[in-house]
Design a protein that fits this description.
about 270 residues, mainly alpha
């Protein structure tokens, strides 16, 4: 893998954003709205329940972490969809660009955009609503790492599905985080779920993040072992998603799908 083609893929996204400020706005606008909305909800809940439960730490912290995961995933898929909308695939792969270099370039773009979103969320949540996010110190690193890795895996998988099924299938990308959220227990313990949903939850890395976060908020000691399981699962999912993307790409090349890529669905 060469670094220059990877940097070229990421640089294209930078030029797109520099040339169109409208593309920059979604990186922080939606996360800011989420934080403000849930921040006032948690303030209200704190005011009617007294000091028994700190909803800022439990609910607003969960919203922040889940929005970070969503930004990571959409950072990959949006960069990919820019090439779909501009019909730019043939230009990319007419060069000596390896598919692995293209995917890594998408990941680099996601890192940049998700960090911007995370910074905006942290400023709002801590400065305006008093979220004690930094009180966890270095313990934050494995939490964010699990969500970051899983966001990358899901973003690559979603991009592969669009590449295989055609641009019209991009509607499948946006609801993916919402479809997953009931299984990972963003706002409630996994014990609330029926058995079949708990089985699925154990295969999803974010479930380990939110279970451990709730334990810390409730005053229990921080344990690293569940997060190590989450990291291992997330890395495995990245490998599987990347392998699936490569396989779909090779099929698209062999079948001529890449050259026929249009705004219509392809079978």
């Amino acid at each position: 893998m060469k670094l220059r083609p990877v940097a070229g893929v990421a640089l294209r996204q930078f030029y797109l954003m520099r040339g169109s400020p409208v593309r920059v706005l979604p990186m922080f606008a939606w996360v800011a709205i989420d934080i403000v909305l849930w921040g006032f909800i948690t303030r209200y809940l704190n005011s009617i329940t007294g000091s028994r439960i700190n909803f800022v730490a439990s609910l607003l912290g969960a919203v922040l972490m889940w929005d970070f995961f969503t930004r990571v995933m959409q950072g990959v898929t949006t960069a990919f969809l820019e090439d779909v909308w501009s019909r730019n695939f043939l230009n990319f792969f007419a060069t000596p660009l390896a598919v692995s270099e293209y995917v890594v370039g998408l990941v680099l773009t996601s890192i940049a955009t998700s960090l911007i979103g995370l910074a905006v969320m942290l400023v709002l949540a801590t400065a305006v609503f008093g979220l004690p996010f930094f009180s966890m110190g270095v313990a934050l690193v494995p939490f964010l790492l699990v969500l970051f890795l899983f966001g990358i895996a899901l973003g690559i998988l979603a991009s592969a599905l669009v590449l295989r099924l055609g641009p019209a299938s991009e509607w499948m990308v946006w609801p993916l985080p919402a479809l997953i959220s009931p299984f990972v227990g963003v706002f409630y313990p996994l014990a609330t779920l029926p058995l079949w949903m708990r089985v699925i939850a154990r295969a999803l890395p974010p479930s380990y993040v939110f279970e451990d976060m709730r334990a810390i908020v409730m005053g229990r000691a921080f344990t690293l072992q569940p997060l190590l399981v989450g990291i291992a699962l997330a890395v495995l999912l990245i490998v599987l998603a990347a392998g699936f993307f490569v396989r779909v790409y090779r099929y698209a090349v062999r079948s001529g799908l890449l050259a026929r890529y249009t705004a219509e669905s392809v079978s």
